[in-house]
């Protein structure tokens, strides 16, 4: 199985990190330090190399250090069974650019992340409780890494949705010319999403067996129209409403998934949500690997927050068992020498300065 490992990371002008070089040729990298020290910015640097964009919202402000004119990040990667390579990311006033050296070393599809990473943010609640759009993004991103046809299906659906909405907005009496194509496209992405979630359910249920507080929890899918109705029936039932509101009310653009208990949406504590999001990511990783995807590098932001020691240890060992490289942040150095795999490095982060500790 193809495996990537970040061997070294150079950061120049990212957030509060003016300049840092990290030797990361280890199985796990722990970054610890006070709030605002710059730990998550290191995860962000790796994410920028992998995906070419940040995972932090606009609210977090510009990523270029406020005393510098550009951000430069360089990552050297070891790759099995391929040759080592280097990725550079630059952001300045002209925009962002990424470059891989030597060129062509990875046979790269621009829509697939250059380096597979999976992230558990310090705000996992937003995935469980936030806007359904976040869950659709999660579902669609993960489905597209598992099913090559999904991206095309989604594109076709989005295009037909725009056309149908334009017809509704223009108060055309008849949307029939779009309806059959819309339903056909809707059914394709619905089938792919369902298949992915069904595939995800099994590893998720197995993984959560280790966490008795998640007993009876299940994953449910909402296709974006009422259960028990075909999409055409659901559309027929709201035609007048659609015409007066000027957009499509039922369809996969309203899809969602949620955690249920006894058939109802489950209420979860913050710690439980953190475990659930971690297990969802671990289950996605199993599915992606079964489809031949390379191992993902784990980015775990503030793993210990909200969790008791026992649950941190259980989750940690699940991440270690995947055999992938792990980057993890926390406000304090782990009090327990957790089983970090064959090799681990500890970095203390303070005001954007990183120091390796033994
Ligand atoms: N463009 C910028 N220039 C300089 N400093 C910035 C910029 N953007 C953000 N910062 C600062 O950089 C730091 C980045 O914090 P980061 O989120 O990486 O810290 P952290 O150690 O993960 O904190 P926490 O434990 O609170 O999550 C913050 O102190 C923030 O105020």
UniProtKB/TrEMBL annotation:
Keywords: ATP-binding, Cytoplasm, DNA damage, DNA repair, DNA replication, DNA-binding, Nucleotide-binding, SOS response. GO terms for biological process: DNA replication; DNA synthesis involved in DNA repair; double-strand break repair; SOS response. It comes from the Bacteria. SUPFAM superfamilies: P-loop containing nucleoside triphosphate hydrolases. GO terms for molecular function: ATP binding; single-stranded DNA binding. It is found in: Cytoplasm. Signal peptide: none annotated. ATP binds at residues 33-40. Gene3D superfamilies: P-loop containing nucleotide triphosphate hydrolases, RecF/RecN/SMC, N-terminal domain. GO terms for cellular component: cytoplasm. It holds the Pfam family SMC_N. Residues 6-332 form the RecF/RecN/SMC N-terminal domain. NCBIfam families: recf. Belongs to the RecF family. The RecF protein is involved in DNA metabolism; it is required for DNA replication and normal SOS inducibility. RecF binds preferentially to single-stranded, linear DNA. It also seems to bind ATP. This is DNA replication and repair protein RecF.
């Amino acid at each position: 199985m193809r495996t990537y490992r970040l061997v070294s990371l150079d950061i120049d002008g990212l957030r509060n990190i003016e300049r840092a070089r990290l030797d990361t040729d280890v199985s796990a990298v722990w970054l610890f330090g006070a709030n605002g020290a710059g730990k998550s910015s290191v995860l962000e640097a790796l994410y920028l190399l992998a995906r070419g964009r940040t995972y932090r919202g606009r609210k977090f402000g510009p990523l270029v250090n406020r005393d510098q004119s550009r951000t430069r990040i360089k990552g050297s990667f070891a790759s099995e069974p391929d040759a080592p390579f280097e990725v550079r990311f630059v952001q300045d006033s002209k925009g962002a650019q990424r470059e891989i050296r030597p060129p062509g070393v990875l046979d790269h599809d621009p829509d697939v992340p250059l380096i597979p990473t999976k992230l558990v943010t310090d705000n996992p609640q937003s995935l469980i409780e936030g806007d359904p759009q976040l869950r659709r993004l999660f579902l669609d991103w993960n489905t597209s890494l598992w099913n090559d046809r999904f991206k095309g299906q989604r594109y076709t659906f989005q295009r037909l949705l725009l056309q149908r909405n334009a017809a509704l907005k223009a108060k055309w009496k008849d949307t029939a010319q779009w309806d059959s194509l819309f339903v056909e496209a809707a059914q394709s992405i619905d089938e792919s999403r369902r298949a992915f979630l069904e595939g995800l359910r099994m590893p998720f249920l197995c993984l959560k067996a280790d966490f008795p507080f998640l007993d009876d929890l299940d994953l449910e899918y909402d296709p974006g129209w009422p259960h028990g109705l075909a999409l055409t029936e659901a559309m027929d039932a709201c035609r007048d409403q659609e015409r007066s509101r000027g957009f499509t009310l039922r369809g996969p653009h309203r899809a969602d998934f949620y955690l249920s208990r006894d058939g109802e949406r489950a209420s979860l504590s913050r710690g439980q949500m953190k475990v659930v999001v971690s297990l969802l990511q671990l289950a996605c990783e199993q599915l992606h690997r079964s489809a031949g995807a390379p191992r993902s590098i784990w980015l775990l932001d503030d793993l210990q927050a909200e969790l008791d020691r026992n649950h941190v240890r259980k989750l940690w060992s699940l991440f270690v068992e995947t055999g992938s490289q792990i980057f993890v942040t926390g406000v304090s150095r782990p009090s327990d020498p957790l089983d970090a795999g064959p090799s681990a490095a500890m970095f203390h982060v303070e005001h954007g300065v990183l120091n390796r500790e033994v």
